[in-house]
Amino acid sequence: MSIPGLGQLAPTAAPIATAASPASAPTTTQTLKPFWEYRFDVPHGSTLGIKLVSGTAEKDGTELAPSTPYAFTATKSKINTWHGCTLEITAPASGTYDAYTSEPTAEETPMVSYLNLHFKLESLRAAAQRTGSMGPRVLVVGPPNAGKSSLTRTLASWATRMGRQPLVVNTDSREGMLTLPGTLSAAVFATLIDITTDWGSLPSSGASAIPVKLPLAYYYGLPQSDDNPKLFKRLLSRLAVAATSRLAEDVDVKSAGMLIDTGGIPTGTRAAAYYDFLGHIVAEFSVNIIIVLGSERVGSEMQKRFAGQTTTVGDTITVVGLDKSGGVMERDESFMQSIRESAIREYFFGNAKMTLSPFTQQVDFAAVSIWRINEAPAATSADGAGITYDDGETRTDTLEKAEPSMMMQNCVLAVACASVHDAPDTIRDANVMGFVYVADVDEKRHRLRILAPVSARLGDRPLLWGSWPEHMVNLLI
Ligand SMILES: Nc1ncnc2c1ncn2[C@@H]1O[C@H](COP(=O)(O)OP(=O)(O)OP(=O)(O)O)[C@@H](O)[C@H]1O
């Protein structure tokens, strides 16, 4: 399944630094030979400085500018080089970090196979440009922590560097792409990505040195894709319609095609639901290239299900297996929770480079229309009618009207691009305009204190209340 001649990255890692403290935190230089990677793990509360002194280097496909200091916090990632480079590393003034160099040869690193893939996609894009047809629609799949998002980002960056404008789609609602977690989103990438972030800064009202990418987002609002499969698939279809029409209206985006990131396929009984979602994505986005990262088991399942099939636009589906990088890092639940909390904080208050001033407003219970997104496990909604739970309620993909209550305190609510007068199904299908945070619920006075990124009234916009991202108690502290 792998491109011949490329094996798993050899674990030849040589630790160069751990647990820096102010006394032992000098600025050091690190020289990387061609194909080496500098891998680093910086926890929350620590900041690692990296500067390219000579040579060339990339992070997830985006080149580091020479002599420019970059600050990384709460990041597990790598800097790689094709031709060799020297980096200046400034250890955190306080706090810890781990870093090491991986020293593979060209034959050992999967990065070469990723680059080969990029050139293959480039030739398909050039052909699509000549004929006015749709460029490649690439789906990246694999088990959790296979490096799927990193590969998607790298392919997007390389395409952008060639002057292409691919549409990048995130179908992993546990993590947000250019928006908060809990969403499915798509955005055209025409400019470089801020390498100190995963996907770039969240769109906000502030100015930014790097052009901000505006995603189209739909709010799913539940922790797992299979918590409400019917709703999840419904929103994927909505996103696919929007993505396809974006391609239709712009020839440059059309020829560049799509890069679609997915959530990790779990093992065991939950896997079936995830393969079902992948089938849905393949059909709805007319996927014609499936990249399977780091799993022969997933690879053979994808081959069996999709290889050789004809897409809805008439081309044939190809399944390609690629090795996972030996450097991909596990991110435990507490690390991921702190990433989600930082995303919420950044959305309302900005980041180290740009401070935002969110707006607080008091709103009467009667002035808001809040809709609850419920879990509805698959087996129970096979007939489309939903299940009757012990509490006597029936749950489907349809939203349920919710009265403001203490349960909403410290929750993020999505503002739907719809009207409170719309039917629940229209509200469910609407894309998201933005988010507000419920800072306080005063049940006695029937008032909510709501934080919004801009000083605009909620007007007649309905609010969607899910359980993901989870409530965050210390946003205003
Ligand atoms: N070669 C590498 N060296 C060091 N870190 C890496 C490398 N490749 C990826 N990572 C890091 O490993 C982590 C997991 O990678 P990534 O998010 O790409 O995996 P994923 O398969 O998308 O994960 P998930 O299943 O959670 O969606 C990320 O923090 C990423 O930056």
Structure characterization notes:
This protein is of the alpha+beta class. It has three domains: 14-107, Jelly Rolls (Sandwich), CATH 2.60.120.1030; 110-322, Rossmann fold, CATH 3.40.50; 358-465, Pre-mRNA cleavage complex subunit Clp1, C-terminal domain (Elongation Factor Tu (Ef-tu), domain 3, Beta Barrel). It has eight helices and 28 strands. It has helices spanning 110-131, 148-161, 229-249, 251-256, 271-284, 296-306, 333-349, 424-429; strands spanning 14-18, 27-32, 37-42, 48-55, 58-59, 62-63, 70-72, 75-80, 85-90, 98-102, 137-141, 167-170, 183-188, 216-219, 258-261, 289-293, 318-322, 350-351, 354-355, 359-364, 370-372, 387-388, 394-395, 400-402, 412-416, 432-442, 447-452, 463-465. The chain has a seven-stranded mixed β-sheet, with helices on both faces. A seven-stranded mixed β-sheet has the order 20-27-26-25-28-21-24. A hairpin with a 5-residue loop joins strand 22 and strand 23 (394-395). Mean pLDDT is 89; it is low at 1-23 and 379-395. The structure holds adenosine-5'-triphosphate. Adenosine-5'-triphosphate (ATP) binds next to strand 3, strand 8 and helix 2. Its main location: nucleus. ATP binds at residues 37, 76, 145-150.
